[in-house]
Specification:
2 helices; alpha+beta; Immunoglobulin-like; 3-stranded antiparallel beta sheet
């Protein structure tokens, strides 16, 4: 509810005493700063949305030997970007038996990756946890039982 008096009804002394003669410059400055912050946030969100995402898809995996699982997956990304993909193998109790971070250098927009993953026990499942630019990689690390080391990668015949 507004004041029962209009600004024009008050004497100059009353307007000065109660701050009614002050310019609304602080309000204008605050409004401009708020609008600039909003536009900046929208520009940032727009830039993040326009930046190409990294897409990946596990096509197939096969347990070849007790210490080896082969995986084939595809990666779609902006060809100018390097990408890191995390590949994990687990046993039937969902305990990690193989884990590797695969570096994919800049190149084609579409990359088909065939990888022979060394495992410490027969794999029950193999999955690509994520593929992302190195500075955006967010993935859980290897979760091997105590006393079990992450096997050296990649698998090679000894």
């Amino acid at each position: 509810m507004g004041s029962p008096f209009s600004r024009d009804q008050l004497s100059p002394e009353m307007r000065e005493r109660y701050g009614l003669d002050k310019r609304r410059s602080t309000t204008v400055v605050i409004a401009i700063v708020a609008i600039a912050a909003f536009l900046g946030a929208m520009a940032y969100v727009g830039a993040m949305l326009l930046r190409g995402d990294v897409q990946f898809l596990l096509l197939r995996w096969t347990v070849v030997q007790d210490d080896r699982a082969d995986a084939t997956f595809e990666v779609r990304r902006d060809g100018d970007d390097a990408v890191v993909c995390v590949l994990r193998a687990q046993d039937s109790k969902r305990i990690d038996v193989g884990y590797v971070e695969i570096d994919i250098p800049p190149g084609e927009d579409y990359t088909l990756v065939n990888y022979s993953l060394r495992t410490v026990a027969p794999a029950y499942t193999v999955e690509v946890l994520t593929c992302a630019r190195p500075d955006e990689l967010r993935s859980p690390g290897p979760q091997f039982p105590p006393g079990i080391a992450v096997p050296e990668q990649p698998w090679t015949s000894s």
